[in-house]
Design brief:
The structure is a single chain. By secondary structure, the chain is an alpha/beta fold. α1 packs across α10, α2 packs across α3 and α4 packs across α10. Helices cover 45% and strands 16% of the residues. The two termini are 33 Å apart.
Length: 274
């Protein structure tokens, strides 16, 4: 069982930052990634539909024989976590609680900001998770255009800087000293976010904190893959356009352009309905 892959699911591409963090922190682990890009984004969908789609994808990963599940999607984490914990026997990690725990320990002033997509903001998932720390003042701020910039490959420049200043001004006015990057796209924008917020503000990456949780969960259950000379298996599946997924995944995984055949032999398209 320790040699089985870690299953990582996201509605789109942002979860690849979680996969990148897992690869960095657990280099001997194999990964099976499923991105439901044909039905993304989940945010505007009714919660019942989000739950249905997410469980379909998680079922597929469990059938693939994964040893752990990672819900690398904030919207899906909020919608399906309770059902998933009851549904599957394998350990499950999501992206919200690990980041919240880190923010609680990191803040010095008790003022925390959460930036996210509009869907995650409206779900109240982060505010619910912070309810266990009632002494904190938490401000949730939607930053919907950040995803557009990341997927267009724009991580700098005057337009992004202007948008970032507009989004982050309310957090600055609140005097937050810690900001949770509550969307898995946002780690690719840490440069501009840190520039606008200033060096005195700690940025908490949900991707990095989720990878730490994956390590902890596997270690606690004696499921860490043994170190070996062999290369771990990396399998990436999309329900949408494989070429688009291949192009964007290079950006999110930090792969150089020359890796044109990185998905050769293990990349395949899965059709879906609905």
């Amino acid at each position: 069982m320790s040699g089985a892959p870690i299953g990582i699911f996201d509605s789109g591409y942002g979860g690849l930052t979680v996969a990148r963090a897992v690869l960095d922190q657990l280099p001997h682990e194999s990964i099976a990634y499923l991105g439901d890009t044909a039905r993304a984004p989940y945010g505007p969908r009714p919660i019942a539909q989000t739950r249905e789609y997410a469980l379909q994808c998680l079922d597929r990963l469990v059938a693939h024989g994964v040893k752990a599940l990672v819900i690398a999607c904030n919207t899906a984490s909020a919608a399906v976590l309770h059902d998933a914990r009851e549904r599957y026997d394998v350990p499950l990690v999501e992206v919200i609680r690990p980041a919240v725990r880190r923010a609680v320990s990191a803040t010095r002033t008790g003022r925390v900001g959460v930036i996210s997509t509009k869907g995650t903001h409206q779900s109240g998932a982060y505010l619910d998770a912070f309810a266990a720390a009632p002494h904190l003042q938490v401000r949730s701020q939607p930053c919907p255009r950040f995803v557009e910039f990341v997927e267009a490959g724009i991580t700098g420049g005057p337009e992004l800087l202007e948008v970032a200043r507009g989004y982050l001004e309310p957090l600055q006015q609140d005097g937050v000293d810690t900001v949770v990057l509550g969307c898995t796209h946002y780690p690719l924008l840490t440069g501009v976010i840190s520039y606008v917020m200033g060096d005195g503000v700690t940025l908490v990456s949900s991707a990095e904190e989720t990878a730490k949780d994956v390590y902890r969960v596997l270690a606690d259950r004696d499921l860490l893959a043994p170190a070996s000379d062999g290369m771990p298996g990396l399998s990436f599946t999309t329900t949408g356009d494989p070429e688009e997924f291949r192009r964007l995944s290079k950006r999110f995984l930090g792969l150089p352009p020359e890796f044109d055949d990185v998905f050769e032999n293990n990349f395949h398209q899965v059709g879906v309905t609905g």
